[in-house]
Amino acid sequence: MNNLILEVNDVAISFDGVRAVNGANLNVAVDSVTSVIGPNGAGKTTLFNLISGAIKPDSGTILFEGMEIQNLLPHKIADRGIIRTFQGAKVIKRLSVLDNLILGGQDNPGESLLNFFNPKARKAYEAQARDRAMELLQQIGIERFAHEYAGILSGGQRKLLDLARALMANPTMLLLDEPFAGVNPTLVEKLLEVLQDLRTKHHLTFLLIEHDLETVMNISDRVIVMAEGRVIADGAPNSIYENQAVIDAYLGTRKATS
Ligand SMILES: Nc1ncnc2c1ncn2[C@@H]1O[C@H](COP(=O)(O)OP(=O)(O)OP(=O)(O)O)[C@@H](O)[C@H]1O
Ligand SMILES: [Mg+2]
Known about the structure:
- The protein is an alpha/beta fold.
- It contains ten helices and ten strands.
- About 40% of the residues lie in helices and about 25% in strands.
- Adenosine-5'-triphosphate binds next to β2 and α1.
């Protein structure tokens, strides 16, 4: 028995000859916060797409809690407890904030044909989901918008909503793609608080992609650096700062692209 929740072994995927992920190796410890950093186009989001099952690797294996998942459909991977958020925080603008969350819950009996004829089960589920959704909205501090259209939320508030939506599914592991990008400093503080709280109270494991190095250094137990589809460094946050390969590949390219 090891304490690894996720193991990515020699995973590769190409798009039209571009090796987006090119033999990536990494693992994630149970209950940890692990950050993936790297220049634009390094393959970070593609790695998340592979882990969540949105795309299948050309080669390599991905193990979650010791079981291979790389060939499973996305909803099967979600059922096992891996839930992701998206780089652009996807919310349904013309639905209320609350309904956005209720839709994020899993095992909605309303979606099953059998239960379509069992309104009692559906009602019970909806009431439960509603309570859970309100609780999460309170936890992330946007309960005042519960009955407003999600479209009125700021970019940062949408990120909070997207996080809450992911939590509705009761994940074991959360994949967060740039959760802090474009979020104002006050909301970043709030998000960080929520993450720490979730971690200590609910034993959640986080794998997150982030560009802001200060935030990364603050919250991560471990940092994985990707460049050109590979993992070029992996270690405690401090060790990353001193790594010359990281400085060259990451900071060098960042300068060139921004
Ligand atoms: N569906 C796709 N079709 C074609 N090329 C793709 C696809 N997805 C990713 N790529 C390419 O794969 C490479 C890695 O992209 P990816 O989005 O994973 O990078 P990233 O590290 O998340 O970058 P960023 O920091 O800008 O979000 C890029 O060259 C990108 O253009
Ligand atoms: Mg990306």
